[in-house]
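Feature request, filed as a ticket because there's no other form

It would be nice if the structure record came with a short human-readable summary line next to the tokens. Right now we just get the raw output. Example of a typical job, pasted below so the devs can see what we mean:
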Amino acid sequence: MSDTSAVSIKYNDLAEFVSDEILDTAEIILGKVKEGLYKMIVEAIMITSLEIIILMFVIVLELFPGNAYKNYKYNFQLGLSVSAFILGLVAYIIAAIIPNYVLEVNRLLSPDTLKGFVALYAIFLVGSVYRYYDIKKSNEKFLNIQLKKEEYTFSADFNLLLGDSLVYMPNISKCAVTKDKTIIFTSVAPEEEIDANFLCKPIGENTYECVSIDKMDNHNSRSVISYVSALIIAFIAVIDSFLLIIGFHNFDNSETNTVILNIFGELGLVFIGGVAIKLFKNVEGITKYIFIIFGCFMIIIGIANLLIMFL
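Raw output as currently delivered:
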């Protein structure tokens, strides 16, 4: 055998060896990537389901600009609640089948914890189904009530015994009174008397529940502030729901978990304070001022602690 042939054989053997090593290494890397993706899939599912629930509330509370989606918001509510429930159920099934595998990645996502999430999503789903069919059943009865701001006033006094509407009474945020009718507001309500078209469903004698609002007076400073503050609260909820899941991820450095959970806690204070103010600012009496002071206190503490963390 010539020297040239021997060198050629050795070169081919070396090339084959290197090629095999590269393929083996690539296979190992892909295997690790797949394993990581499989391990994190429950985290991804739960983060997605929480964001879907937040999106559902944003739509129901009509926080998005525009009016086109408002006529279909209960369709969206039903679809989103179904999606969140299915995702939560899938996450629970995975965690129940391979609990150690999931807990190796995130110590929050135990089967018992996920069972609680599924139960919460089931409550949202039942409420969405009821609301969807209630609205669908009453579709032909809807009235478009157009009112100028001087034609009605807001009142805290309303009759809690309105027959079929009793189920909605705990959700009432405001009550508008005109000379011949009463409109109650549940999911949406204007900050103050405005010119608007109110899409309403009759629930009693001269009593209506507002389902959607088409504002004609949409640019006063109070309405803009209320709209922006509601979007900020929703944005904080989006971030906090993400941090809730990621905060219990098993990072190599445990200090990372501490930082994330601290941010989660402080943003949670801001969120609770904002919600307290939004819910009780229109209530009559001392309760309003108690919750506004409480809300402001929570917001100040949360923001101050966040500034201390990062400065």
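Something like this underneath would help us a lot:
The longest helix spans residues 3-60.
Residues 160-170 have pLDDT under 50 and may be disordered.
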